[in-house]
Structures are given as C-alpha cells and as structure tokens.
Design brief:
Layout (H helix, E strand, L loop, with lengths): L4 H5 L4 H11 L4 H8 L19 H14 L4 E2 L12 H8 L2 H4 L11 H18 L3 E2 L6 H15 L6 E5 L4 H11 L5 E5 L13 E6 L10 H9 L3 E6 L10 H4 L3 E5 L15 E5 L12 E5 L5 E5 L6 H4 L12 H37 L11 E5 L4 H10 L2 E2 L1 E4 L2 E5 L6 H10 L36 H12 L22 H4 L5 H4 L11 H18 L3 E3 L5 H18 L7 E5 L4 H9 L3 E5 L9 H10 L4 E7 L11 H10 L3 E5 L12 H4 L3 E3 L20 E3 L30 H34 L18 E4 L1 H7 L3 H10 L6 E2 L6 E4 L7 H22 L17 H5 L8 H5 L20 H6 L14
Parallel strand pairs: 1-12, 3-4, 3-5, 5-6, 6-7, 16-17, 16-18, 18-19
Antiparallel strand pairs: 2-8, 7-8, 9-10, 11-14, 13-14, 15-21, 20-21, 22-24, 23-24
Family: Belongs to the GcvP family.
GO cellular component, one term: cytosol
Organism: Nocardia alba
C-alpha cells in the first residue's frame, strides 16, 4: 500500500495509535475529539475548501510551476535588498541541513554550544563592521530594527522630548514602520534633510539617519552626531555592512546605536525575507538591547561556555514593562550571514565591496552629468527630467529592474551579482553608449575612508577553504541537539518535524531571487501561492481575512492589537485603551499591548488554571468604558481546553470589547475548532509551530494575523505607502519560506490536518497518563484530559529532595534528550509537548528516561547521594569529565550511560558542563575575543 504524506508526517502508525488510545481510555480519534474538546466549540463541518491532498512529488511539481511563473529579472532596485551569491558549501551544509534548521532556541545552552558560537560570531561581525561595542543576536528585519532603535533612544536618553528627528533619505519602508510604531506611543516624527549637518529648531530625544541613504549618497555624519549630542539627543544610524568594509562606520562617527540588515551577506532576497536584521549599541546601552544577546560564561569546570544573557526572556518577568515584545530572532539567517563573513574574511568582503562600488562607478561614469550624488557606494541616483519611466521600461525590456524614484529620477543599485554586461545594459537604457573606458579611472579609494581593522578573530580567519568551512559547520552542529537527533518535547513550542519536501523549494531561484519590490507582473507565481495560503488559513481558523506580513509571532500580536486599536478609534471610542490579560498568558501579550498604547489589567486564574470568570466579570465592570479587548490563549497556556471559553468571549463582546485569541496553541485546534467561529475577533498564527516552518535555532518565524470581516480594513498595508500601518519591511513578510506551509497544507489535506491535531492530543495525554504517578500533571480539563501538552509539577519534589527542574532538564541531556519547557507558565514545572511527528518508540524512550530520572531523585531522597553531588546536580556530563579526577559518589558509567552502555539510543555528548548563568550576567562578554582572554 502506498503511504500518503500524512502517514509519513504523523509518527504513530495504526498499531501504535491503538496502544496510545487504549492507555488514555478512548476508542478512536473521533472519540478523543468529543471527549477532550468542549462541545460548545467542536466544529465538525470540516475544511471543505482545502484541496484534496497531493503527494510529495506532485506538490514539488506544482511549486515548480509556480516558481517558473515568476520572472527572475536582474534586480537593481536596492532599498536594502540585493542579490547575493550564497556559497554552495553554506547552502548544502547549513541552510539545507536539518542539524541547523530543526534546532530550537538555545535555552538549554549546554546542548546548544554550536549555534551559540555561530551567533556570537554574528554579534562580533556586526559590532566590528559598525564600529559599535555590542550587537544582539539578530532582529527581524531592518525596518523593525530601526523602530526598536527608536524606542531604545527614547528610554535610554535623558531628554524629556517626544520628538524624533529622521533624515529624509531613510529607506521608505523604514520610515513607514517607524511611523507605525511611533503613533501609539505618542512619538512625533520630524523629517528633514540632515545632510547639511545642521539640526532643525527644537528639542528631540533622538535622531535617525542612514548610510548609504536610499538615494545612495554617503555623508560624513560626525558633525551632525556631535550637534545632536550637544542638543541632548541620542543618535541611531542605519548602516550597510558591506559598505562599512570600506567607509568609516557610524560607531566611529559618534553614533549611539546602529541598525540594519545582513541580507546581502549570503541570504537570498526571497521576495522580502526572512533576513537577519541587527541592532548594535555602545556599552552603556548594552542592557537596553531588545531581543537576544549571546554572552560568555563558564561551566562547572571553569571552562568558557556560551549562553543567552540578560533580556533573553524578559517578557516573562517584566511583561508590559519589557523593552520589546520580540521573543524570537532570525537565528538561521544570522548564522548564514556570519558564516558568509567567516568564509570570505575581511579581505574577501572588502574585495566584494570594491567590485560592487566599481560597477556603480562605471554606471555613474556612463551617465555623466545625470548623476545626482558624487559620493556613493552601490546606488547611483540619476536625474532624467520627465524621462524616468521610459528609462525604467527600457531596462525592463533588457531583463533588468531599476527603481523608479519619481518622474524625474531613477536609482540603480549594484550588488555582488552585478556584471559588466548589466552595467552596459543600464547605461544603454538611458540612451547613452558606454565607452570602453567608462569605468577606468573610477577610484574606489574615494569612499575608502575606513582605517580601523575588523574581523580579526580566528572565527573569520580560519575557514576560507571549503574543507575548513565544511568541518567547522560539522563541528558546531555536533555540539547541538536538534530534531535530527532527538525528540524536542518543548511545551508551547510545537517542535514538529519540517519535511524535506516542504523545505526543498525555498532555495529555488524562482522564489529566492525575487526582490520584494519587483514589478507585480514579475511575481504571479508567488502571489498565487500567497493568495492560496491566505484563503486556506482563513478557512482553517474561521476568520475572514489574513495578512501574511508579520514576520514573527510578536509582530502578529502587534498587528492584531493595532487593528483593534484602530477599530475603536474609527468608532470614536478613543477611551477604550484597556487590555485584559490572564495571569497565565505568555509575556509577549502584555508587552505587545503596551506597544500599542494599551493599559494592561491582569485577570486571575483559578486553582485549576482556567481564567477566573468571576474576576473577569469584576474587571469588566471596573473598566467597562475603557475595555478595548481581552487576550487569551486557547487551549490555555496551561495546556487545557477551558470549557467556558465561549462565555468568556460573550462577556467581553457584551461590554464592547474585542477578543484576541493567541494562536500559539493552534496545533490543538486545526480541523477541530476555529477561533473565528467560537468568539475570536483576531488571532495571530505561528507558522513555525503549527504549520511546519522550521525554528532554525530560534528563527525564522512567521506570525500571520487573521481577523473577522469588521477588522479586515485594519490589517497592515504596503510598507512603501506612508501611513499604511505596515509592521514589517516587506509586504508579505518572510515570503520565501511560505512555500513550506503551502506544501504542508497541500500535502496533508483536511483529513490529514485533523488527524495530526488529534494525534498530538493523544500523544500528550499518553505522556500525562504514563508520567502522572512519577511527576504529577498539574492541570487537566473537566474530563481529566489535557490538550496537546501537559505540565509536570516538580515543586513538591524540589521541596522534599532539593532536586530542581534545572537538574532534571540538564540530566535529560545525558539521556540524549532536549529538556521540556522549564518553569513556564508555572515556576518549578516542566511543560511537555510531543507533537504528532514523534512515533511511540521515541515517546516511550522519553517516558523511560523521565521514569529513570525519578528513580535517581528517589536515590537522593533516600540519602544514597547527597543533594549537592549526584548525577542530576552534576549533569550534564562531558567526555572530558570522565578522564578528569573522579571524586563523585556515583560512577562514571552512571554519569554518562544512565541506561547502560549497551542501550541502543545513540549517545549525545554535551560539549560543556552546567553553565553558570549568574556569572555570565555579571561579566557580560558579547563578542568573541580569543579564548585565552577568559583564562583568568
């Protein structure tokens, strides 16, 4: 019998599923649906609009046809998006390697040292090239990084002003995103031409400029930055990292913050993303950085070790007072960019930059007096009065896309893929013949003002051959646990496998080499794919309209709340500014609400984890006139189906509020219930959870926002249109990875999606039943069922034995497993989510490991091992620790082969012992100097 894709995606076969169902006491998956879900939300109408499932090869053929429908023109549009030549060694061994793309955020640093080192390389690369002290581990894109820079300037500075000064030559999409973010926060934007070096009258808390600018011009900003500082304002600069290999970086001109993108460092344009943005600051502002920051600490043996530091999960602590709602990054793309820099090194990058500039200089030489700016790097702005459209059309006929600035101006952007023939065709499009020596005499030294060194660390000097890079990538990935090695049972994160057939198309040129601002007629294939996906996701969720623009769950949250805010304002309800959020909610909910100018009020939860409807009624009564919305997660953050969700939604609607249903746990609803039908007005969806886009070590993610019809007009618009309320730099966000979700839905079909959801629920309940006697399950629904995840309560165990969730998490690495989610949403607990992708053998292996760990805890309780020295407290154990002096009360064999040397499961060897987190926060090291610098 031919197996369908759904059969291969879903782990348990029919015999295994029968055993799972018998253990949890239901006869079938259909019976499980009626037992686990409240009858008030169960939707048996099916997903009829989805096409019948296709085979893997059939879907690849369909995607190939869509890719071929696109026109891959030579892109010379620029605006922060450039063609780039990704080294094949990085394509095959990083971008297409499941050891890299199936990894999770490195919250368990001992088994994440490879990707942490790669991210530290990224941070070093950015700080070196910008001339700043500290960089974070990536942002979502350049425009959102600029908006984060804006809020950083405001909170870090001493000015009381609410005015922000921005240069006229910022990228237009960056201006739009800054405008979207500024308005709810009461920030007034003042735009001016700052190239003269003088400031407008009045006070400003910050100044934002770009180098090179959208027009291509390069400006020495030193005097302006000094003037801003004298006025009490901080300064942020957008910097092109390739240009910074030649030109004096903003950090050396006096900037306080730098932002930008690393897209042109080997990451394809992909119709807009995903790409790794960046944010870098002076040391004084390091603790103000949003997002993730990799630093250096020490392990239990005193060896240097990498870890996430500072604000890594600050939303869970500071909530509405968090510096940002971003809890993810663009890790996979940041690593590609860092390895691109490592492969080329400083000299290689400088050579690429010179070649890019020489081609731009050749264009300028051919255009003569039409050139507007004499100082430029890669982009030439040409003045052709009344003739711009004709020039762009002529270039288009030659297979080249230029940027139409206005009726009188055309911009031409050169990049790594530009060749002499492109230059000649561009100049011919202006009606000017390119003379053979037009480029001769162009002097790249004219912009080569940089004197400082960069990328001198061994990470950027050792790996310039393919052999060296191949081995470096392998050595790093061997230090990590990803889905290619083990189940990753992270609750709230849905680590399902990303199928190869889903992943394969993302590197095809028909998707990967599209500029996000390419002419519409060039992109019918990907636009068809996008329209399909919007339609399918609306059907699956029960909403009426979907925007794929948000490029992370946090951005989807923000876009959804922004839509609610604008809806109330348009109705004259500008007093509705209160957002109710249950105490169990993910911290980004509160942070997102604060970002759109809402006041957060917390609703209590009952002892069983459900939202306390009595407290909700009281909060509604207290804030009735000001109620904007409630944000809930369904199934709840506690991993159960709350039976009163429909009543909850009605209470809020009756008070004039809107209902935001966080889509983090949608993998427990697809094919069974639809948020848009049981009371939701808006949801964001995590495609990197429910719909198979890979986590990539902590990014990329996609967070589409879905709404009911009355909110559809408030979805984010085109970022090239000022005032469009866009939330990401590209109209369709991270478009190049949307084929993954398209392929998943297309191959699964309606019944496959439903079976996947029910299998995930069944597997979670199986784990809960098997482990409840060893680690009590904290929350269940009215019928004793959990949803797609369960919370194991270790708090009494810790009180009685001193063994903590950290001890259990680190010990699991010795057993070959990644730990579940620790202490969220309840401190002292583990949240376990198996997903539908894991078969029963793997699930039973995990259960056996947990039971064995409980046996080790009992040994501690019995006094066989002291609480300060036992296999759990000593975990994880490295190979090096075995050959060192051994003075523990347990054996080496117990340490590293807890289930016996002959056990069939492949041994995972952590590369470091347990890492000292407090040491790392006290001694923040965020770039990679030689390791001997840490010997003291």
């Amino acid at each position: 019998m031919t197996r369908s894709f759904a059969d291969r995606h879903i782990g348990p076969d029919s015999d295994e599923l029968a055993r799972i169902l018998a253990t949890i006491g239901v006869e079938s998956l259909d019976a499980l649906a009626t037992t686990a879900l409240p009858a008030t939300i169960l939707d048996e109408s099916g997903l009829g609009v989805l096409p019948a499932p296709a085979s893997e090869h059939g879907v690849l053929e369909e995607l190939a046809a869509l890719a071929q429908a696109n026109t891959v023109a030579t892109s010379m549009i620029g605006l922060g998006y450039y063609d780039t030549l990704t080294p094949p060694v990085l394509v095959r061994n990083l971008l297409e390697n499941p050891a890299w793309y199936t990894a999770y955020t490195p919250y368990q640093p001992e088994i994440s040292q490879g990707r942490l080192e790669a991210l530290l390389n990224f941070q070093t690369m950015v700080s070196d090239l910008t001339g700043m002290d500290v960089a974070n581990a990536s942002m979502l894109d350049e425009a959102t990084a600029a908006s984060e820079a804006m809020t950083l300037l405001r909170r870090a500075g001493k000015s009381k002003s609410d005015r922000l000064l921005i240069d006229i030559d910022l990228f237009p999409q960056t201006k739009t995103i800054i405008g979207t973010r500024a308005e709810p926060l009461g920030i007034e934007l003042v735009e001016a031409d700052l190239s003269t070096g003088s400031l407008p009258e009045g006070e400003f808390f910050g100044v934002i400029v770009q180098t090179p600018g959208a027009s291509g011009r390069i400006v020495d900003w030193t005097a302006l930055f000094a003037a801003a500082h004298e006025r009490g304002a901080l300064v942020a600069a957008g910097a092109d990292l390739l240009a910074m290999t030649l030109s004096t970086p903003p950090g050396e001109q006096g900037a306080d913050v730098c932002f930008g993108t690393t897209q042109r460092f080997g990451v394809p344009m992909g119709f807009g993303g995903p790409h790794a943005g960046y944010l870098a600051v002076r040391t004084a502002f390091a603790r103000q950085l949003p997002g993730r920051l990799v630093g250096v600490s020490v392990d239990a043996d005193g060896a240097p070790a990498y870890r996430l530091a500072l604000q890594t999960r600050e939303q869970h602590i500071r909530r509405e007072k968090a510096t940002s709602n971003i809890c993810t990054a663009q890790v996979l793309l940041a690593i590609v960019a860092a390895m691109y820099a490592s492969y080329h090194g400083a000299n290689g990058l400088r050579a690429i930059a010179r070649r890019v500039h020489e081609h731009a200089a050749a264009v300028a030489a051919g255009l003569g007096g039409a050139v507007v700016h004499s100082a430029f790097f890669d982009t030439v702005l040409a003045h052709v009065p009344g003739g711009a459209e004709a020039v762009v059309a002529k270039a288009k006929s030659k297979g080249i896309n230029l940027r139409l600035v206005d009726a009188d101006h055309v911009a031409i952007a050169c990049d790594e893929a530009t060749i002499d023939a492109h230059v000649a065709a561009v100049v011919e499009s202006f009606g000017t013949a390119l003379t053979p020596d037009a480029g001769a005499g162009s002097e790249p030294d004219a912009i080569e003002t940089r004197t400082s060194q960069y990328l001198t660390h061994p990470a950027f000097t050792r790996h310039h051959t393919e052999t060296a890079m191949l081995r470096y990538l392998r050595a790093l990935s061997d230090k990590d646990i990803a889905l290619d090695r083990s189940m990753i049972p992270l609750g709230s994160c849905t680590m399902k496998l990303n199928a190869t057939a889903e992943m394969e198309p993302i590197t095809w040129p028909g998707f990967a080499r599209l500029h996000p601002f390419a002419p519409t007629e060039d992109t019918p294939g990907i636009r068809t794919l996008i329209a399909d996906l919007e339609h399918w996701l609306a059907e699956i969720t029960g909403y009426d309209a979907v925007s794929l623009q948000p490029n992370a769950g946090s951005q989807g949250e923000y876009a959804g709340l922004l839509a609610i805010r604008r809806y109330h304002l348009d109705r004259g309800d500008d007093h509705r500014d209160t957002c109710l959020i249950p105490s169990s909610a993910h911290g980004t909910n509160a942070a997102s609400a604060a970002m759109v100018g809402m006041r957060v009020e917390v609703v209590k939860c009952r002892a069983n984890g459900d939202v306390d409807l009595d407290d909700l009624r009281a909060k509604i009564a207290d804030h009735a006139d000001r109620l904007a919305c409630i944000m809930i997660t369904y199934p709840s953050t506690h991993g159960v189906y709350e039976h009163e969700v429909a009543e909850l939604c009605s209470l809020v609607h009756d008070a004039g509020g809107q209902v935001y249903v966080d889509g983090a746990n949608l993998n427990a609803l697809v094919g069974l219930a639809r948020p848009g039908r049981f009371g939701g007005d808006v949801s964001h969806l995590n495609l990197h959870k429910t719909f198979c886009i890979p986590h990539g070590g902590g990014g990329p993610g996609v967070g589409p926002v879905a709404v009911r019809s009355h909110l559809a007009q408030y979805l984010p618009g085109d970022p090239l249109e000022a005032g469009s309320h866009a939330v990401s730099a590209a109209n369709y966000g991270s478009a190049s990875i949307l084929p993954i979700t398209w392929a998943y839905i297309r191959m699964m079909g309606a019944e496959g999606l439903r079976a996947a959801t029910l299998t995930a629920i069944a597997s979670a309940n199986y784990i809960a039943r098997r482990l409840d006697a060893f680690f009590p399950v904290l929350y269940t629904g009215e019928n004793g069922m959990v949803a797609h995840e369960c919370i194991l309560d270790l708090r009494d165990i810790t009180k009685q034995t001193g063994v903590t969730v950290d001890d259990v998490a680190k010990r699991l690495a010795d057993y070959g497993f990644h730990a579940p989610t620790m202490s969220f949403p309840v401190a002292g607990t583990l949240m376990v989510e198996p997903t539908e992708s894991e078969n029963l053998e793997e699930i039973d292996e995990f259960i056996a490991a947990m039971i064995a760990i409980r046996g080790e805890i009992d040994q501690v309780a019995a006094g066989v091992w002291p609480v300060t020295d036992n296999p759990l407290r000593g975990a994880p154990h490295t190979a090096a620790s075995l050959v060192a002096e051994w003075n523990h009360p347990y054996s080496r064999e117990t340490a590293v082969y807890p289930r016996g040397v002959g056990h069939a499961r492949p041994k995972v060897w952590p590369s470091v012992r347990r890492i000292d987190g407090a040491f790392g926060d006290r001694n923040l090291v965020c770039s990679c100097p030689p390791l001997d610098a840490y010997e003291d």
